[in-house]
Amino acid sequence: MLNLDINGRRVTVRKGTALLAAIREAGFEVPTLCHHEALEPYGACRLCVVEVREEGRDKTRVVTACNYPAKAGLQVETESEAVVETRREVLDLLLARCPGSPVIRELASSMGLHRSSYPPDQNRDNCILCGLCVRVCEKLGFTAITMAGRGAEREVAAPLKEPPPDCVGCGSCARVCPTGNIPLVDRDAMRRIWDRDFEMVRCTSCGRAYITREYLESRVEASGLPASHFELCDECSRSRTAQTMYRHMVLDDKEASHE
Amino acid sequence: MSKMLMVTPGRCIGCRTCEVACAFRHAEAGVPGRSRVQVRTLAKDVWVPILCLQCDDAACVQACPVSALWRNAETGAIEVQEDRCVRCNVCVVACPFGNMTVESPKKAVIKCDVCGGDPACAQFCPTRALEYLEV
Ligand code: SF4
Ligand code: FES
């Protein structure tokens, strides 16, 4: 356990806690875009900046809280002038990069920024290079997409920029993307994502297409659960549960009337 | 001693009060959520409320690739750690009872959490088809 001060409030956290977690435990909020509790910290969006003074030092530093460890004796400010200024600058740049993203616009306007002071980048999509899609894909064991290129050319892509051969079409990347930049279309029992088409499995009861075949197969294997667990959509599994309970109920009644 | 939600289907009159109570208890910013309990009609005048059985060997927990589902030691209910869920939706497909639910645009899947130990469905069920009892 170690003690630190956050906005003047003394908090005690376990060793190894990230500063962001300590701040949230203390009841303060800092905005984040590239952080996800299930994934390794990445420090890419720089929105989670806070000002820290380490024990025994005079100088303060502005650091990203998501990948900075909570240290004993640390003094942390989450809304100091330096923090607000840095956060504003980060959002100013993000707003120039993705002027059309509602998420970015909302964050920016919450800091009083309605238009970027930089020229807006009209030709770009809403990717902010937060890497959440790449990291979730890796976490699920597929590693189908990666970060490619450097500097202004940096982007998320499949190796060789082809439709990713290791993608199973699970769609998790599209769902964690903070700006909704990854198109996913389900139509006629087919899913299209990353320029690839995936066949979807239909529920054996109602016929609804509910998961891609490749994802289903990979999850049966990874989970070690029987394949029969996966053969119905959730709605039909529920109906089956209801029928099972009903049958028991009827049986119980019969037994009761025999007694 | 721990408590569990017990279902007695024969008492259910299909009024769906439980669904409404659940949706309101799980409201966020004043907007009711999707109900975690669902009443199914099986025959004329036969209804069964279905909700999570909080399985010992839960398929959802086993299938989750990021350990976003943990059992609450106090209530015994399996809870979704909303910050950890990546919405891969594997649990939704893997639960053989159909008790994991997608509620878009929420950032996590949803399931019955016995309302933290005071389940609204049982509280409002007029016929005690749903009861929260010591087991
Ligand atoms: S949807 Fe969320 S809780 Fe369910 S398996 Fe995926 S990460 Fe785990
Ligand atoms: S959340 Fe810390 S840098 Fe993005």
Question: Could you characterize the architecture of this molecule?
Answer:
- The complex is a heterodimer of chains A (259) and B (135).
- Chain A has 259 residues and is of the alpha+beta class.
- Chain A has two domains: 109 residues, Ubiquitin-like (UB roll) (Roll); 74 residues, no CATH class.
- Chain A is 32% helix and 18% strand.
- Chain A has a five-stranded mixed β-sheet with strand order 2-1-5-3-4, sandwiched between helices.
- Chain B is 18% helix and 20% strand.
- Chain B is built from four helices and six strands, in the order E-H-E-E-H-E-E-H-H-E.
- The longest helix of chain B is centred in the first third of the chain and has 9 residues.
- Classes of the chains: A alpha+beta (259), B alpha+beta (135).
- At the A-B interface, helix 5, helix 6 and helix 7 of A face strand 2, strand 3, helix 2 and helix 3 of B.
- The structure holds iron/sulfur cluster and FE2/S2 (inorganic) cluster.
- The site of iron/sulfur cluster (SF4) has 14 residues of chain B, from helix 3.
**What is the CATH class name of the largest domain in chain B?**
Alpha Beta
The coarse overall form of chain B would be globular
Characterize the overall form of chain A.
globular
- Weakly predicted, low-confidence segments of chain B: none
Helix content of chain B: 10-25%
Biggest sheet strand order of chain B reads 1-6
Please tally the helical runs of chain A, counting DSSP H or I stretches of 4 or more residues: 7
Please tell me the total number of domains of chain A.
2
Mean pLDDT of chain B: 94
CATH architecture of the largest domain in chain B: 2-Layer Sandwich
**The biggest beta sheet of chain A, please?**
5 strands, mixed
Number of helices of chain B: 4
Main sheet properties of chain B? 2 strands, antiparallel
> What is Rg of chain B?
15 Å
Tell me the structural class of chain A: alpha+beta
Share of residues in helices of chain A: 25-40%
Number of strands of chain B: 6
